[in-house]
Amino acid sequence: MRGSLICLIAAALAGLTSIVQGAYVPADPWDDGRSGLGAVTEGIVGPAHTEEAAVIYVSNDDWFTLPPLNYIPPPYHRDALEGVRICLDPGHAGGVIREDGRISEAIMNLEVALMLREFLQASGAEVVMTRETGEDTPNEGNLEWRARLADRENCDFFISIHQNATRRESANYISVWYHSRPDHPCAANDLARWVTVELHRLLRHHEPQHAGLYSSWLMYPPRGLADGYRHDTTEGLPSGFGVLRSLRVPGILIEGAFQSHPEGAQQLRDREYLRRMAWGLYTGILNYVWAGIPSIALHEDQTEVVEGPRPEIHLSLDDGMHERWARNAPPRIHFETLRVYIDDERATLRYRPQTAEIFATPGEDLAPGEHTVRLRVLNVWGNWSWPTEIPFTVGGT
Length: 397
What we know:
This protein is of the alpha/beta class. It has eleven helices and 17 strands.
């Protein structure tokens, strides 16, 4: 009896059909890689059951065909970007459309930046521009001025937009630059990583083997240091890109495509392609911020004025992540990375995970007056905290 029942169930399952988009499909929709569900949902690639089908899937070079875009942001876009302040820097300035029809890089960069600003503002972000027109500006050649604008305007991070060129005509790939050693914890590296992934996904350049994520700090090491390792405070030994080196907030520089590549040059003349580039930047920024930026604040029980000379500063820790799956759970951070600095000197910590509280004590006596406390920690999405400084005052005479 039991054996007969099992046989009946097996037979029923074998003859089972499914309905997909109003059409009946076989129980094994991937029987030849071309029929069943694959035929109904055209363009969906599933498991291949034959060597021939596998070769077709692997050898297909349609990856380079740009996927269609509907420019619809995910439902969490406003939750992520509301109130985030971003500085956009369209590289270079001036520029004209030449007699041969070629467009200057300055115009391309401005087009991308203006489209990106529109996307960001629609999601609630606040945007500061280093320039808004194609005209030459008095501060265009002043890289430090452009970088420090982000600081003066209290921006959270900075993005400089460029296009590339080289003598090798076949070169065409994305490069996203940050200014740090690869092994140094750096929020700019995180931003660069998220943006690189999205630009790769949407632009499909012909040399995808290039990682696209680069350190300008290592690309142009300071003269006189054989290993290329340096500190930003090393006087007289600049390294990397000047606009990134001068930043006080996290920042990246992107090279979207190569003007020297025949197809790349043609694409860069297409406003829709530039819009796609702007959308890749937008979704990279959006996903970066949505993954959370860890931060600290003075605890509600902590006054801004403390008594010295070696006070214990009471702080609240936030992992920055938006999904509230467990309100009473500890912050989702890598505990071994947790550091707090008082006036840039590492402090001694007591950490209470269940209440997300940190108690930081300076290693040396603090003089009366203004001081700052800063967090460095990595959350589970791989984002480092921003180098935001929280002020407090040590009382006394």
